[in-house]
């Protein structure tokens, strides 16, 4: 091989490596998915960091408040979720994770309140499941409305110890939302897997947020 051919081969090799590196970096950059929570939600969560929760109603009130503020601030759909960490010995709970619907602001159909709260909780726990994620504790998920098909599936895989719901599927569908294929069998499967389900906790308050949103917000499917 001549000196010229050798230099040409080296240049070609370097160029190929550079091109591959550029492609890899570009691909990685393109695959970085980001979504944000509204600033008010961080402040609200922080305001409750020292509060102890005992009853289902106390915990559900937080999820409903998130849905209410989300509508008021025009930062997403009328759905909120809060996950609590319960001490198995004392039975007292602390707010652990929050989620507000961010579908439209973030152009992401997966960012329902439940999915946001689950993702945030699992990131904090460094676990892909809420079941047996931390010794001596269990996780209670409160959602301002019964979950859609996607969120029910997400709950099945995350498997909190309990799921508490306020407004009903019918309440959401009454204002135009499509909750997808959710059946009684879906809840039976969830409970059989180990997640206790409680419905219609502060149902009237949760439904009011939906009805208030229907007067001012767009009904989207996603």
Question: What would you say this structure looks like, in words?
Answer:
The longest helix has 28 residues, at 3-30. Helix 3 (56-72) packs parallel to helix 9 (203-216) and helix 5 packs parallel to helix 6 (149-158). The chain contains nine helices and five strands; from the N terminus they run αααββααβαβααβα. The chain is globular and about 45 Å long. It has 222 residues and is of the alpha/beta class. It has a five-stranded mixed β-sheet. Residues 3-27 have low confidence and may be disordered.
Question: How do the helices and strands line up, and which of them pair or pack?
Answer:
Elements lengths: L2 H28 L8 H9 L8 H17 L7 E8 L5 E8 L2 H4 L6 H13 L11 E9 L3 H10 L3 E6 L1 H6 L9 H10 L2 E3 L4 H14 L6
Helix pairs in contact: 3-9, 5-6
In short:
The chain is of the alpha/beta class. The protein is 50% helix and 15% strand. The protein is globular.
Task: State the helicity in percent bands.
Answer: 40-55%
The tally of helices reads: 9
Strand order in the sheet with the most strands: 2-1-3-4-5
Q: Report the principal-axis shape.
A: globular
Structural class: alpha/beta
End-to-end separation in angstroms reads 62 Å
Keywords:
222 residues; five-stranded mixed beta sheet; 9 helices
